[in-house]
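Why do we bother with holo predictions? Because pocket geometry can differ from the apo form. Keep that in mind while you read this record for S-adenosylmethionine.
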Amino acid sequence: MKQDTSERKIVIEQNKRFSQSCLWRMQREYFDKEGINAWVNQVPFYITSNPYIAKCYAEIVMSFIRDTIKTNPEAKKNPFYILELGTGSGRFSYYVLKTIAELQKSLGLEDVSICYIMSDFTKHNIQYYETHPALIPFIEKGMVDFALYDMETERPITLLKKNIRLGTDTLVNPLIVFANYIFDTISHDSFAVHDGKLYELLLTISTPENNMHDNKAVEMDKLSIDYGVHEVKGSYYNDPHLDSILDLYKTSLNDTSFLFPIGSIHAIKLLKKLAQNKLFIISSDKGYSAMEQLENLGHPTLSFHGSFSMMVNFHAIATYFKNSGGDYFLQTPRKGIKTSVFYTEALAHTMPETRVAIEKYVEGLSPADYFTLHRRMSDAFQECSLDTIAAHLNFTGWDPHIYLKLASRVNSLVGESDADTVNFIANNLHKMAANYYYMPKSDCVLFEIAVYFHSIKRYDDALKYYLEAKKFVGEQFGLYYNLALCQHHLGHNADALENFKQALKQDENSKETQEWVTYIEKALAEKS
Ligand SMILES: C[S@@+](CC[C@H](N)C(=O)[O-])C[C@H]1O[C@@H](n2cnc3c(N)ncnc32)[C@H](O)[C@@H]1O
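The structure, written out:
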Protein backbone atom coordinates (compact mmCIF):
# COMPACT_ATOMS: atom_id res chain seq x y z
CA MET A 1 0.00 0.00 0.00
CA LYS A 2 1.29 3.48 -0.96
CA GLN A 3 1.81 6.02 1.83
CA ASP A 4 0.01 9.35 1.47
CA THR A 5 2.94 11.80 1.43
CA SER A 6 0.59 14.78 1.01
CA GLU A 7 -0.50 14.29 4.62
CA ARG A 8 2.91 13.98 6.23
CA LYS A 9 4.28 17.36 7.29
CA ILE A 10 7.91 18.40 7.29
CA VAL A 11 8.99 21.14 9.66
CA ILE A 12 11.21 23.49 7.66
CA GLU A 13 12.21 25.80 10.47
CA GLN A 14 11.25 26.31 14.06
CA ASN A 15 10.94 29.32 16.37
CA LYS A 16 12.63 31.74 13.98
CA ARG A 17 12.58 35.50 14.19
CA PHE A 18 10.34 36.50 11.30
CA SER A 19 12.96 38.65 9.55
CA GLN A 20 15.40 35.71 9.63
CA SER A 21 12.96 33.20 8.24
CA CYS A 22 13.64 31.29 5.01
CA LEU A 23 10.47 32.90 3.62
CA TRP A 24 12.43 35.94 2.41
CA ARG A 25 14.94 33.80 0.58
CA MET A 26 12.06 31.94 -1.10
CA GLN A 27 10.44 35.25 -2.02
CA ARG A 28 13.63 36.45 -3.72
CA GLU A 29 14.11 33.12 -5.47
CA TYR A 30 10.58 33.40 -6.84
CA PHE A 31 11.11 36.89 -8.32
CA ASP A 32 14.55 35.99 -9.63
CA LYS A 33 13.29 32.83 -11.33
CA GLU A 34 10.17 34.38 -12.84
CA GLY A 35 11.66 37.72 -13.90
CA ILE A 36 9.13 39.65 -15.96
CA ASN A 37 6.81 36.60 -16.15
CA ALA A 38 5.88 37.28 -12.51
CA TRP A 39 3.43 39.87 -13.90
CA VAL A 40 1.82 37.55 -16.41
CA ASN A 41 -1.28 36.48 -14.47
CA GLN A 42 0.58 35.97 -11.19
CA VAL A 43 1.59 39.00 -9.11
CA PRO A 44 -1.10 41.73 -9.07
CA PHE A 45 0.13 44.96 -10.64
CA TYR A 46 -2.67 47.15 -11.96
CA ILE A 47 -3.37 49.02 -8.75
CA THR A 48 0.20 50.42 -8.66
CA SER A 49 0.89 50.46 -12.40
CA ASN A 50 -1.69 52.65 -14.10
CA PRO A 51 -1.53 56.13 -15.62
CA TYR A 52 -3.53 57.67 -12.75
CA ILE A 53 -1.19 56.67 -9.92
CA ALA A 54 1.72 57.76 -12.13
CA LYS A 55 0.07 61.17 -12.57
CA CYS A 56 -0.37 61.49 -8.78
CA TYR A 57 3.32 60.76 -8.18
CA ALA A 58 4.52 62.95 -11.05
CA GLU A 59 2.45 65.92 -9.84
CA ILE A 60 3.74 65.57 -6.27
CA VAL A 61 7.34 65.20 -7.43
CA MET A 62 7.21 68.20 -9.75
CA SER A 63 5.74 70.27 -6.90
CA PHE A 64 8.53 69.03 -4.66
CA ILE A 65 11.16 69.94 -7.25
CA ARG A 66 9.61 73.41 -7.66
CA ASP A 67 9.61 73.90 -3.87
CA THR A 68 13.26 72.82 -3.72
CA ILE A 69 14.28 75.23 -6.48
CA LYS A 70 12.33 78.09 -4.89
CA THR A 71 14.13 77.58 -1.60
CA ASN A 72 17.49 77.11 -3.29
CA PRO A 73 17.80 78.29 -6.92
CA GLU A 74 21.25 76.64 -7.07
CA ALA A 75 19.46 73.26 -6.94
CA LYS A 76 18.88 73.58 -10.70
CA LYS A 77 22.58 73.06 -11.29
CA ASN A 78 22.44 69.45 -10.13
CA PRO A 79 20.31 66.50 -11.15
CA PHE A 80 17.29 65.38 -9.18
CA TYR A 81 17.49 61.62 -8.71
CA ILE A 82 14.29 59.61 -8.38
CA LEU A 83 14.95 56.06 -7.22
CA GLU A 84 12.20 53.48 -7.74
CA LEU A 85 12.57 50.50 -5.40
CA GLY A 86 11.47 46.99 -6.41
CA THR A 87 10.42 48.30 -9.82
CA GLY A 88 8.75 45.11 -11.08
CA SER A 89 7.36 45.26 -14.63
CA GLY A 90 8.44 48.87 -15.31
CA ARG A 91 4.97 49.88 -16.45
CA PHE A 92 4.56 52.40 -13.62
CA SER A 93 8.05 53.76 -14.35
CA TYR A 94 7.12 54.37 -17.97
CA TYR A 95 3.91 56.23 -17.11
CA VAL A 96 5.58 58.33 -14.46
CA LEU A 97 8.55 59.17 -16.74
CA LYS A 98 6.20 60.18 -19.51
CA THR A 99 4.10 62.36 -17.21
CA ILE A 100 7.12 64.00 -15.61
CA ALA A 101 8.52 64.83 -19.06
CA GLU A 102 5.14 66.31 -20.10
CA LEU A 103 4.92 68.36 -16.88
CA GLN A 104 8.49 69.60 -17.30
CA LYS A 105 7.52 70.86 -20.73
CA SER A 106 4.24 72.51 -19.70
CA LEU A 107 5.78 74.09 -16.57
CA GLY A 108 8.83 75.38 -18.43
CA LEU A 109 11.16 73.19 -16.36
CA GLU A 110 12.91 71.36 -19.18
CA ASP A 111 16.25 72.73 -17.99
CA VAL A 112 15.93 70.75 -14.74
CA SER A 113 17.90 67.55 -15.03
CA ILE A 114 15.94 64.55 -13.75
CA CYS A 115 17.41 61.07 -13.58
CA TYR A 116 14.93 58.29 -12.90
CA ILE A 117 16.54 55.12 -11.57
CA MET A 118 14.64 51.88 -12.07
CA SER A 119 16.03 49.51 -9.47
CA ASP A 120 15.34 45.92 -8.60
CA PHE A 121 17.36 43.19 -6.96
CA THR A 122 17.12 40.83 -9.93
CA LYS A 123 19.10 41.37 -13.11
CA HIS A 124 16.37 39.62 -15.09
CA ASN A 125 14.08 42.61 -14.58
CA ILE A 126 16.82 45.13 -15.33
CA GLN A 127 17.59 43.32 -18.60
CA TYR A 128 13.92 43.62 -19.55
CA TYR A 129 13.87 47.40 -18.97
CA GLU A 130 17.14 48.03 -20.79
CA THR A 131 15.76 46.93 -24.14
CA HIS A 132 12.10 47.88 -23.70
CA PRO A 133 10.88 49.88 -26.73
CA ALA A 134 8.86 52.30 -24.56
CA LEU A 135 11.86 53.13 -22.38
CA ILE A 136 14.47 53.54 -25.11
CA PRO A 137 13.69 57.23 -25.86
CA PHE A 138 14.15 58.02 -22.14
CA ILE A 139 17.39 56.02 -22.01
CA GLU A 140 18.68 57.93 -25.03
CA LYS A 141 17.80 61.26 -23.39
CA GLY A 142 19.70 60.19 -20.26
CA MET A 143 16.51 60.58 -18.23
CA VAL A 144 16.43 56.97 -17.10
CA ASP A 145 19.09 54.74 -15.56
CA PHE A 146 19.09 51.35 -13.85
CA ALA A 147 20.48 49.90 -10.64
CA LEU A 148 20.71 46.44 -9.17
CA TYR A 149 19.74 47.14 -5.59
CA ASP A 150 18.77 44.55 -3.00
CA MET A 151 17.07 46.42 -0.17
CA GLU A 152 18.03 43.70 2.32
CA THR A 153 21.72 44.51 1.85
CA GLU A 154 23.82 47.61 2.47
CA ARG A 155 25.71 47.50 -0.81
CA PRO A 156 26.39 50.69 -2.81
CA ILE A 157 23.83 51.68 -5.44
CA THR A 158 25.54 52.06 -8.82
CA LEU A 159 23.83 53.52 -11.87
CA LEU A 160 24.50 51.06 -14.66
CA LYS A 161 24.44 53.53 -17.59
CA LYS A 162 26.16 56.50 -16.02
CA ASN A 163 28.46 54.24 -14.00
CA ILE A 164 28.24 56.41 -10.89
CA ARG A 165 27.39 55.58 -7.31
CA LEU A 166 24.66 57.28 -5.33
CA GLY A 167 26.32 59.07 -2.41
CA THR A 168 27.52 62.38 -1.10
CA ASP A 169 29.13 63.44 -4.41
CA THR A 170 26.13 62.66 -6.57
CA LEU A 171 23.20 63.40 -4.27
CA VAL A 172 23.38 67.17 -3.97
CA ASN A 173 19.62 67.57 -4.23
CA PRO A 174 17.23 65.58 -2.04
CA LEU A 175 16.82 61.95 -3.05
CA ILE A 176 13.26 61.17 -4.14
CA VAL A 177 12.19 57.55 -3.66
CA PHE A 178 9.16 55.63 -4.95
CA ALA A 179 8.27 52.42 -3.13
CA ASN A 180 5.21 50.63 -4.48
CA TYR A 181 4.26 47.14 -3.38
CA ILE A 182 7.75 46.60 -2.04
CA PHE A 183 7.51 47.34 1.68
CA ASP A 184 4.98 44.47 1.80
CA THR A 185 7.44 42.15 0.05
CA ILE A 186 10.63 42.46 2.10
CA SER A 187 11.39 41.35 5.64
CA HIS A 188 9.26 42.07 8.69
CA ASP A 189 9.40 41.15 12.34
CA SER A 190 6.24 40.20 14.18
CA PHE A 191 5.07 41.00 17.70
CA ALA A 192 2.07 40.73 19.97
CA VAL A 193 0.88 42.90 22.85
CA HIS A 194 -1.17 41.44 25.66
CA ASP A 195 -1.86 42.81 29.15
CA GLY A 196 0.79 45.53 28.82
CA LYS A 197 3.48 43.07 27.78
CA LEU A 198 5.31 42.87 24.45
CA TYR A 199 5.96 39.48 22.85
CA GLU A 200 8.05 38.52 19.88
CA LEU A 201 6.22 36.10 17.54
CA LEU A 202 8.52 33.28 16.44
CA LEU A 203 7.71 31.33 13.30
CA THR A 204 7.52 27.61 12.82
CA ILE A 205 7.05 26.73 9.16
CA SER A 206 5.95 23.35 7.88
CA THR A 207 4.77 21.91 4.59
CA PRO A 208 3.46 18.59 3.22
CA GLU A 209 6.29 16.19 2.43
CA ASN A 210 5.33 16.08 -1.25
CA ASN A 211 6.01 19.82 -1.50
CA MET A 212 9.69 19.20 -0.77
CA HIS A 213 12.34 18.80 -3.44
CA ASP A 214 16.12 18.67 -2.78
CA ASN A 215 15.43 19.56 0.83
CA LYS A 216 13.59 22.75 -0.13
CA ALA A 217 9.89 23.61 -0.21
CA VAL A 218 8.67 24.09 -3.79
CA GLU A 219 5.37 25.97 -3.65
CA MET A 220 5.11 28.80 -1.17
CA ASP A 221 1.33 28.66 -0.88
CA LYS A 222 1.66 25.15 0.60
CA LEU A 223 3.54 26.45 3.64
CA SER A 224 1.82 26.54 7.03
CA ILE A 225 2.93 29.01 9.64
CA ASP A 226 2.53 28.65 13.38
CA TYR A 227 3.53 31.29 15.86
CA GLY A 228 5.18 30.85 19.23
CA VAL A 229 5.42 33.74 21.69
CA HIS A 230 8.40 34.93 23.64
CA GLU A 231 8.24 37.94 25.93
CA VAL A 232 10.49 40.87 24.98
CA LYS A 233 12.22 42.36 27.98
CA GLY A 234 14.51 45.34 27.51
CA SER A 235 15.76 46.60 24.18
CA TYR A 236 14.91 44.46 21.15
CA TYR A 237 16.72 46.25 18.32
CA ASN A 238 19.43 48.06 20.30
CA ASP A 239 18.37 51.15 18.39
CA PRO A 240 16.57 53.84 20.40
CA HIS A 241 14.51 55.04 17.41
CA LEU A 242 13.19 51.55 16.74
CA ASP A 243 12.86 50.43 20.35
CA SER A 244 10.84 53.53 21.18
CA ILE A 245 8.27 52.51 18.54
CA LEU A 246 7.94 49.07 20.14
CA ASP A 247 7.54 50.80 23.52
CA LEU A 248 4.83 53.02 22.09
CA TYR A 249 2.90 49.96 20.89
CA LYS A 250 3.44 48.16 24.18
CA THR A 251 1.92 51.03 26.13
CA SER A 252 -0.76 52.14 23.66
CA LEU A 253 -2.15 48.88 22.29
CA ASN A 254 -4.19 46.44 24.39
CA ASP A 255 -4.51 43.08 22.75
CA THR A 256 -3.17 42.56 19.26
CA SER A 257 -0.44 41.32 16.93
CA PHE A 258 1.45 43.59 14.57
CA LEU A 259 4.23 43.54 12.01
CA PHE A 260 7.30 45.69 12.14
CA PRO A 261 8.73 46.49 8.66
CA ILE A 262 12.34 46.05 9.65
CA GLY A 263 13.69 45.36 6.13
CA SER A 264 12.09 48.57 4.83
CA ILE A 265 13.35 50.62 7.77
CA HIS A 266 16.90 49.35 7.27
CA ALA A 267 16.72 50.31 3.59
CA ILE A 268 15.33 53.75 4.50
CA LYS A 269 18.22 54.24 6.95
CA LEU A 270 20.75 53.48 4.22
CA LEU A 271 19.04 55.82 1.76
CA LYS A 272 18.88 58.57 4.40
CA LYS A 273 22.59 58.24 4.92
CA LEU A 274 23.37 58.30 1.19
CA ALA A 275 21.17 61.38 0.77
CA GLN A 276 22.67 63.14 3.80
CA ASN A 277 19.31 63.25 5.49
CA LYS A 278 17.45 64.77 2.52
CA LEU A 279 15.06 61.98 1.64
CA PHE A 280 11.52 62.21 0.24
CA ILE A 281 9.55 58.96 -0.17
CA ILE A 282 6.18 58.23 -1.72
CA SER A 283 4.86 54.73 -1.17
CA SER A 284 1.65 52.87 -1.99
CA ASP A 285 0.94 49.50 -0.49
CA LYS A 286 -1.67 47.58 1.39
CA GLY A 287 -1.27 48.37 5.04
CA TYR A 288 -2.21 50.19 8.21
CA SER A 289 -1.84 53.92 8.51
CA ALA A 290 -3.34 54.63 11.96
CA MET A 291 -2.66 53.27 15.44
CA GLU A 292 -6.36 52.31 15.85
CA GLN A 293 -6.03 49.97 12.86
CA LEU A 294 -3.33 48.02 14.67
CA GLU A 295 -5.61 47.10 17.59
CA ASN A 296 -7.28 43.65 17.90
CA LEU A 297 -5.48 42.02 14.99
CA GLY A 298 -4.86 38.29 14.84
CA HIS A 299 -1.44 36.83 14.10
CA PRO A 300 -0.07 38.03 10.74
CA THR A 301 -1.19 36.23 7.61
CA LEU A 302 0.56 36.05 4.27
CA SER A 303 -1.31 36.48 0.96
CA PHE A 304 -0.03 34.24 -1.79
CA HIS A 305 -0.23 35.33 -5.46
CA GLY A 306 2.87 33.78 -7.01
CA SER A 307 4.93 35.73 -4.49
CA PHE A 308 3.54 36.55 -1.04
CA SER A 309 2.81 39.84 0.65
CA MET A 310 1.63 41.18 3.97
CA MET A 311 0.13 44.33 5.43
CA VAL A 312 2.63 47.15 5.79
CA ASN A 313 2.74 48.93 9.11
CA PHE A 314 2.94 52.46 7.64
CA HIS A 315 2.28 53.82 11.10
CA ALA A 316 5.62 52.43 12.29
CA ILE A 317 7.49 53.92 9.32
CA ALA A 318 5.81 57.28 9.95
CA THR A 319 6.72 57.16 13.63
CA TYR A 320 10.29 56.32 12.69
CA PHE A 321 10.47 59.47 10.53
CA LYS A 322 8.83 61.60 13.22
CA ASN A 323 11.16 60.30 15.94
CA SER A 324 14.17 61.27 13.86
CA GLY A 325 12.97 64.84 13.19
CA GLY A 326 11.21 64.26 9.89
CA ASP A 327 7.51 64.15 9.13
CA TYR A 328 4.93 62.27 7.07
CA PHE A 329 1.54 62.38 5.47
CA LEU A 330 -0.58 59.27 5.84
CA GLN A 331 -3.78 59.01 3.86
CA THR A 332 -6.79 58.84 6.18
CA PRO A 333 -7.94 55.22 6.48
CA ARG A 334 -10.20 53.92 3.74
CA LYS A 335 -10.55 50.63 1.94
CA GLY A 336 -7.79 49.63 -0.46
CA ILE A 337 -4.12 50.50 -0.74
CA LYS A 338 -2.66 53.36 1.24
CA THR A 339 -0.48 56.06 -0.25
CA SER A 340 1.98 57.63 2.18
CA VAL A 341 4.61 60.34 1.99
CA PHE A 342 7.63 60.46 4.31
CA TYR A 343 10.35 63.07 4.51
CA THR A 344 13.38 63.79 6.64
CA GLU A 345 14.03 66.73 8.92
CA ALA A 346 15.95 68.78 6.35
CA LEU A 347 12.81 69.01 4.18
CA ALA A 348 10.09 69.28 6.78
CA HIS A 349 9.51 73.05 6.60
CA THR A 350 10.01 73.95 2.95
CA MET A 351 7.28 72.33 0.96
CA PRO A 352 4.18 74.53 0.40
CA GLU A 353 3.43 73.40 -3.18
CA THR A 354 4.20 69.79 -2.27
CA ARG A 355 1.68 69.94 0.54
CA VAL A 356 -1.02 71.19 -1.84
CA ALA A 357 -0.23 68.37 -4.28
CA ILE A 358 -0.29 65.78 -1.48
CA GLU A 359 -3.66 67.07 -0.33
CA LYS A 360 -4.99 66.73 -3.87
CA TYR A 361 -3.42 63.42 -4.96
CA VAL A 362 -3.06 61.46 -1.72
CA GLU A 363 -5.92 62.65 0.46
CA GLY A 364 -8.12 63.78 -2.43
CA LEU A 365 -8.74 61.44 -5.35
CA SER A 366 -6.04 59.00 -4.34
CA PRO A 367 -4.71 55.96 -6.23
CA ALA A 368 -6.92 53.85 -3.92
CA ASP A 369 -10.06 55.84 -4.83
CA TYR A 370 -9.17 55.60 -8.51
CA PHE A 371 -8.87 51.82 -8.23
CA THR A 372 -12.20 51.47 -6.41
CA LEU A 373 -14.01 53.49 -9.08
CA HIS A 374 -12.28 51.66 -11.92
CA ARG A 375 -13.24 48.30 -10.48
CA ARG A 376 -16.90 49.24 -10.22
CA MET A 377 -16.86 50.43 -13.83
CA SER A 378 -15.06 47.30 -15.00
CA ASP A 379 -17.81 45.20 -13.43
CA ALA A 380 -20.52 47.26 -15.10
CA PHE A 381 -19.24 48.22 -18.53
CA GLN A 382 -21.54 45.72 -20.30
CA GLU A 383 -24.41 47.96 -19.18
CA CYS A 384 -22.70 51.22 -20.21
CA SER A 385 -23.38 53.28 -23.28
CA LEU A 386 -20.47 54.50 -25.39
CA ASP A 387 -20.51 58.02 -23.94
CA THR A 388 -20.13 56.60 -20.41
CA ILE A 389 -17.31 54.36 -21.58
CA ALA A 390 -15.65 57.34 -23.29
CA ALA A 391 -15.85 59.37 -20.07
CA HIS A 392 -14.36 56.45 -18.16
CA LEU A 393 -11.52 56.06 -20.64
CA ASN A 394 -10.78 59.76 -20.23
CA PHE A 395 -10.85 59.32 -16.43
CA THR A 396 -8.33 56.46 -16.66
CA GLY A 397 -5.97 58.65 -18.72
CA TRP A 398 -6.65 56.51 -21.85
CA ASP A 399 -5.33 53.39 -20.24
CA PRO A 400 -4.68 50.42 -22.60
CA HIS A 401 -5.24 47.91 -19.80
CA ILE A 402 -8.82 49.16 -19.42
CA TYR A 403 -9.47 49.43 -23.15
CA LEU A 404 -8.46 45.80 -23.68
CA LYS A 405 -11.13 44.77 -21.19
CA LEU A 406 -13.92 46.64 -22.92
CA ALA A 407 -12.87 46.78 -26.57
CA SER A 408 -15.51 44.26 -27.66
CA ARG A 409 -18.24 46.34 -25.98
CA VAL A 410 -16.91 49.49 -27.67
CA ASN A 411 -16.88 47.79 -31.06
CA SER A 412 -20.44 46.60 -30.60
CA LEU A 413 -21.64 50.14 -29.77
CA VAL A 414 -19.76 52.25 -32.30
CA GLY A 415 -22.25 51.75 -35.14
CA GLU A 416 -25.23 53.01 -33.12
CA SER A 417 -23.58 55.84 -31.13
CA ASP A 418 -23.57 59.58 -31.72
CA ALA A 419 -20.83 61.13 -33.86
CA ASP A 420 -19.48 63.36 -31.06
CA THR A 421 -18.77 60.38 -28.82
CA VAL A 422 -17.31 58.29 -31.63
CA ASN A 423 -15.00 61.16 -32.64
CA PHE A 424 -14.09 61.98 -29.05
CA ILE A 425 -12.75 58.45 -28.63
CA ALA A 426 -11.08 58.44 -32.05
CA ASN A 427 -9.35 61.76 -31.36
CA ASN A 428 -7.87 60.48 -28.11
CA LEU A 429 -6.72 57.05 -29.21
CA HIS A 430 -3.22 58.37 -29.95
CA LYS A 431 -2.91 58.96 -26.16
CA MET A 432 -3.81 55.34 -25.54
CA ALA A 433 -1.28 54.21 -28.14
CA ALA A 434 1.37 56.32 -26.37
CA ASN A 435 0.49 54.50 -23.13
CA TYR A 436 1.18 51.07 -24.60
CA TYR A 437 3.82 49.24 -22.57
CA TYR A 438 4.63 45.86 -24.06
CA MET A 439 4.39 42.85 -21.73
CA PRO A 440 4.93 39.25 -22.84
CA LYS A 441 1.87 37.10 -23.46
CA SER A 442 -0.46 40.12 -23.29
CA ASP A 443 -2.83 41.52 -25.89
CA CYS A 444 -1.64 44.46 -27.96
CA VAL A 445 -3.79 47.57 -27.67
CA LEU A 446 -2.39 48.95 -30.95
CA PHE A 447 -4.30 46.22 -32.76
CA GLU A 448 -7.54 47.16 -30.96
CA ILE A 449 -6.99 50.84 -31.78
CA ALA A 450 -6.64 49.86 -35.42
CA VAL A 451 -9.89 47.88 -35.21
CA TYR A 452 -11.69 50.98 -33.86
CA PHE A 453 -10.48 53.15 -36.74
CA HIS A 454 -11.26 50.36 -39.17
CA SER A 455 -14.83 50.13 -37.90
CA ILE A 456 -15.38 53.87 -38.39
CA LYS A 457 -13.81 53.68 -41.86
CA ARG A 458 -10.76 55.80 -41.03
CA TYR A 459 -8.62 53.42 -43.07
CA ASP A 460 -5.43 55.54 -43.02
CA ASP A 461 -5.38 55.56 -39.23
CA ALA A 462 -6.34 51.88 -39.06
CA LEU A 463 -3.50 51.00 -41.44
CA LYS A 464 -0.99 52.98 -39.35
CA TYR A 465 -1.93 51.14 -36.14
CA TYR A 466 -2.11 47.69 -37.77
CA LEU A 467 1.44 48.26 -39.00
CA GLU A 468 2.59 49.36 -35.54
CA ALA A 469 0.85 46.36 -33.96
CA LYS A 470 2.70 44.04 -36.36
CA LYS A 471 5.99 44.79 -34.54
CA PHE A 472 4.49 43.30 -31.38
CA VAL A 473 2.02 40.63 -32.45
CA GLY A 474 4.04 39.21 -35.34
CA GLU A 475 2.60 37.02 -38.09
CA GLN A 476 -1.16 36.63 -37.59
CA PHE A 477 -3.99 35.86 -39.95
CA GLY A 478 -6.26 38.62 -38.54
CA LEU A 479 -3.58 41.25 -38.81
CA TYR A 480 -2.73 40.50 -42.46
CA TYR A 481 -6.37 40.20 -43.42
CA ASN A 482 -7.36 43.51 -41.80
CA LEU A 483 -4.30 45.26 -43.22
CA ALA A 484 -5.26 44.04 -46.67
CA LEU A 485 -8.86 45.22 -46.27
CA CYS A 486 -7.71 48.74 -45.30
CA GLN A 487 -5.23 48.85 -48.17
CA HIS A 488 -7.94 47.79 -50.59
CA HIS A 489 -10.28 50.53 -49.31
CA LEU A 490 -7.48 53.05 -49.75
CA GLY A 491 -6.96 51.89 -53.33
CA HIS A 492 -3.59 50.21 -52.61
CA ASN A 493 -4.52 46.95 -54.29
CA ALA A 494 -0.98 45.66 -54.91
CA ASP A 495 -0.20 45.91 -51.16
CA ALA A 496 -3.61 44.46 -50.33
CA LEU A 497 -2.93 41.45 -52.55
CA GLU A 498 0.43 40.87 -50.84
CA ASN A 499 -1.21 40.91 -47.40
CA PHE A 500 -4.17 38.71 -48.41
CA LYS A 501 -1.55 36.20 -49.60
CA GLN A 502 0.26 36.48 -46.28
CA ALA A 503 -3.07 35.89 -44.52
CA LEU A 504 -3.58 32.77 -46.64
CA LYS A 505 -0.21 31.46 -45.49
CA GLN A 506 -1.47 31.72 -41.93
CA ASP A 507 -4.80 30.05 -42.75
CA GLU A 508 -4.84 28.29 -46.09
CA ASN A 509 -8.45 27.15 -45.57
CA SER A 510 -9.86 30.68 -45.42
CA LYS A 511 -12.32 30.76 -48.33
CA GLU A 512 -12.95 34.48 -47.92
CA THR A 513 -9.25 35.26 -48.26
CA GLN A 514 -8.96 33.07 -51.35
CA GLU A 515 -11.91 34.97 -52.89
CA TRP A 516 -10.22 38.30 -52.13
CA VAL A 517 -6.99 37.13 -53.76
CA THR A 518 -8.88 36.11 -56.93
CA TYR A 519 -10.88 39.34 -56.96
CA ILE A 520 -7.85 41.63 -56.56
CA GLU A 521 -5.69 39.69 -59.01
CA LYS A 522 -8.47 40.17 -61.54
CA ALA A 523 -8.83 43.86 -60.75
CA LEU A 524 -5.07 44.39 -61.08
CA ALA A 525 -4.95 42.45 -64.36
CA GLU A 526 -7.81 44.54 -65.79
CA LYS A 527 -6.06 47.74 -64.78
CA SER A 528 -2.81 46.83 -66.47
C1 LIG B 1 5.38 42.89 -5.49
S1 LIG B 1 6.53 43.36 -6.66
C2 LIG B 1 6.14 45.06 -6.91
C3 LIG B 1 6.55 45.59 -8.22
C4 LIG B 1 6.13 47.03 -8.54
N1 LIG B 1 6.73 47.96 -7.65
C5 LIG B 1 4.62 47.16 -8.52
O1 LIG B 1 4.07 47.96 -7.80
O2 LIG B 1 3.98 46.44 -9.30
C6 LIG B 1 8.03 43.41 -5.78
C7 LIG B 1 9.24 43.77 -6.63
O3 LIG B 1 10.34 43.94 -5.74
C8 LIG B 1 11.45 43.17 -6.16
N2 LIG B 1 12.13 42.74 -4.93
C9 LIG B 1 11.86 41.68 -4.13
N3 LIG B 1 12.70 41.65 -3.09
C10 LIG B 1 13.52 42.73 -3.24
C11 LIG B 1 14.60 43.23 -2.51
N4 LIG B 1 15.03 42.61 -1.41
N5 LIG B 1 15.21 44.35 -2.93
C12 LIG B 1 14.80 44.98 -4.06
N6 LIG B 1 13.78 44.54 -4.81
C13 LIG B 1 13.15 43.43 -4.40
C14 LIG B 1 10.89 42.04 -6.98
O4 LIG B 1 11.81 41.58 -7.96
C15 LIG B 1 9.68 42.73 -7.62
O5 LIG B 1 10.05 43.36 -8.82
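The chain has a mean pLDDT of 95.
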